[in-house]
Structures
1.
Amino acid sequence: MTFNSTLRCGIAALGWIAVGTAAQAAGALGEFHSMPRAVVFAARSAASMDPGTASSAEAAPVVLPYSVSEEVRPDGSRIRRYLAPSGQVFALSWKTLYKPNLSSLLGASFPDYARAAGTAAQRGGIQRQFRMDANDLVVQSSGHLHVFSGLAYKPSLLPAGVTAQTLGGG
Amino acid sequence: MKLLLRLVALALPLVLAACGGGDSTTTTLTGAAANINLATAFTQTNNNLRLVVEDVPALRGFAVTNTNTLYADIRVCNPSDDTQCVTIDHVLVDTGSVGLRVMASKVSGLALPPVNLSNHPGDVSHECFQFVIGGLWGRNAVANVWLGQQRTATPVSIHLIDDGATPAVAVPADCTNATNGSVLSTAASLGANGILGIGNTTVDCGYNCTVGDYTGIGAFIQYYHCTPAATDTSTCGPASVAANEIVYNPVSALPGPDPQDPTVPFFNNGVVIKMPAVSGAGATSARGELILGVNTYLPGSGNYSDNRVPNGAAKAELGVDYQFNIDSYLNVTTTFRGTDYPISYLDTGTNGIFFSHPDLAGYVCSSWYCPPSTLFFSADISDGKAIKTNLAAPVSFQIGNGMFYTQNPAISDNAGEAIGQDSAKVFAWGLPFFYGRQVYLTIWDFDPLNPPWYAWAPI
């Protein structure tokens, strides 16, 4: 499904890219995410999104060090892939009305996650939040009722200047 | 020297090492000099039941005690025979999930029928219910559920947690992955004989489960359809579950209002939770009350507990706009020292208060806060919706060291960092919020014009 590429104002240095999901290969963390060239355009900087500066909207787009691809489900659940210029997925985040299948999202990083999560699970009881930071994998995950959100990234692949906070993490 | 004060199976479980200070000391815990048992006044009526926080050695798992685990006794009956029932003790009362889930062994004598799936004729329902970490596996069953003196209007789908020596149906790989390799298959590992999920929605799953599509972005399968005789899921498939087959909020399944007679009491629209105040040092036990229904009490209509929100009570509506206000969906907003936390919620299934703030960064002991002395705070809670209609309400809370110095299961001052995604936005008000308060929680039927809300007042 395609979705509107809305350039969200007020989010610092964040651009959006329209994607045609029919033609793309959905990359897991660390993999390469391909999308049709025709619908990819460079992200604009926050300054050019200021509605008060119409003239700057005409300025040449500033290419940011990463781009974002978002998939949206019919129920509104969404997964974002953060892509380096090469197309490599260096981070992904999810806000979903179900627990997403992390074995498909984390790709080769899944065994590291599974190991850490399995250790946490040994303690038993209801656990509604999780964090790990090991082996070049950071995962933060939380959820209650049937509402889940999470962030996973590889610190070694973060473009210069991009932090967990930039990606919405803590 | 490692100072092992307590192992707690919590939302943030950990082994505590020596915190702060450079001295190595050994402390021998002698336990409380005297038991402190706190209780609210309680009279059994037609719409209430007792709640208790207490240590249950058989349910400790790896923990020293069942810290802030809220329990109730729940009665389950064969759907065709109200004389075939069992009462299950120490079921965890959880406003953070939906549906009744019980150890299968506790109801094995009831011959609870399977849930037949209309979209998969001949097949029966199994469920892999997932927490952020860990989960539960087992078949679904049809039962009538009694909450105190109130019974579900018609039988509902519940979840039987397979606690047999070997599962009746082998756990599928997808479920093992979903639960991080840990299907909680014993009462001790869960910390309870079951979970009574009475959260703010009527059902435990949405689009994926009604359509039976767990692919696309990729979800773990929650419901499976299997032949009745299946012993493994190799022949099972992802299930599309109809509205009357999905695990249902037992409170929502109580009789609703009588359209012919508004004087007939009903209690299916929410719950009230009242717990005694607990000091930082904690209590050996804390007994409170679950009242069924919110604002449905009619004076003079019979022996019922008053469930009306008192004048002056604080109120906050949960957000219901997943498309444009996604953080606030099923959440309220907390504001602490000028910082907004849009992912805030009240949760009896969380055993502390969890949030992050730079001012507390210096007090962190392995994700818990361990200030040298008790800190007293106030935060505001406001509507989760973008255009707020209720005034922000101040909430007092404290962060202290109770958990480091006592084994009391009921403590009101334990708090820690939020560590999950959006940890800068999360403010999870766990059971300490409920101590000393009467808290009203309504259940949402997904009507966008009628959002769920919280209300609260001192007890």
2.
Amino acid sequence: MSSELLFKPVRELAALVRARQLSPVALTELYLDRLERLGPKYNAVVTITRERALSQARRAEGEIAAGRYRGALHGIPYGAKDLLATAGTPTTWGAAPYREQRFDFDATVIGKLEDAGAVLCAKLAMIELAGGMGYRQPTASFTGPCINPWDTDAWTGGSSSGSGAAVAAGLVPFAIGSETWGSILSPAGYCGLAGLRPTYGRVSRHGAMALCWTLDKLGPLALTADDCGLVLEAIAGADSADPTASERPYRYEVAERRGFRFGVIPDVTDGCEEAVVANFRRSLDELAKIGTVEEVTLPDLPYEQITRTILQVEAVSAFEDLIESGGIAELTAPEDRFTPYAREAILAHDYLKAVRLRGVMAREIDRVISRYDALVAPGRINEAPRLGQEFRSAIRATAKDVMGAVGNGAGLPAVCVPNGVGARGLPTSLQFMGRAWEENRVLDAARAYQSLTDWHTRHPKLD
Amino acid sequence: MPETPNPEVVTLFALVANRYGDRLTTEQLDEIKKMVEGQVEAARALRAVRLNNADEPFQAFTAYRGEP
């Protein structure tokens, strides 16, 4: 059974489950077995939640047999980044100082997925403290570097590293990750997956580790953009425990659209690897079949400095106790043990200037992006870095990422999907970024692109 | 001729060094100095943009009142 089911999108698994041609218990056992057997190979897993998973799967099976089908995620296994609180299991935040940490409640996202009938199989590895302490290389996690299923000498990206590895290796059909700046799009892009960063406030952050209160978003990584929409519908919505979670209703609607308007920032490929640029140009040719592609110039603002300043200040404030106490010395990455101290030297005046400029940025970008269905760009500047390699990052000002700065700083939704391979045969990616609260539009565009290409149907060769 | 250090970098680095220097190595302090230089550079870019009096911090604040 396993080879037929592996790498089937959630939508296809759901159809089989609903028709009772596939048992949620058997499906869960399949993925639990793979998590146990292959999870360690990729350093992808922190905790396997076998007992909870089988209990949820049995309940799903019984409900479906009784005619109480809850929807597309009913009986579907998944994994969650280990920064989401789950009662009864450790929640480590990927960091040695928190390896024994436990909460007595489930994060809202975990609860919403339970309500949808999804089956939690594992807490997945992540970069320590979601990368907020300034890490420079893949080993920045107490569970070790997360290994890319496409190439065991390559990194998955981060900070939702295990979420990327687990879906790419067929250990779960979808996973939940988080993004403050790049942490969903990076592992999705490097692992050849679809990753959706929702609008800030679309998904409750209650029970998720806080890195930056005004930047953190939770979202899915899956095999297709369509699957991301299915998951988003289950996890979106207001939450009295998180005042930033919006009451705007969200329903994933599949529209087979054409006639899109895409915008491209002129210098958006600056600093990208040659193959990334070539693949992006090919993607633009594909997009021209389903819409118009035009250059769009953004107003001249210090986008990266705005978002970086806010991120750095909020992150050191969120972990004030750990930093002040010297507890960061227990972190795994050597650079995470001292980088936060530098941020103590950011002046309040400059931080507030960044927060004021953020309003200007949000208004200006909305004015520009409202004329388009999406701005498009490479998802990443490169193929996955090698495991022993220091990587470039806009958060540390060693790479450019205007799309990431604008998208995260203004809280805009983006989805990335695979669009080719690079010089080392690893996936490259294409991102679609839309207006606030327009997840369906960017998902429409990404789905339309995936209907023209087959990159999402290719998977790593696994032993 | 050696470059004249930026006095703002010197002052801000001294703040970090005074506060945390006893737990940091010379190499770490050197790295932190480079980071402070980067932060001052970023601040310069932020300060260069003129704002209007009405450009408020883009963060909602609401007065809180517990029930009832």
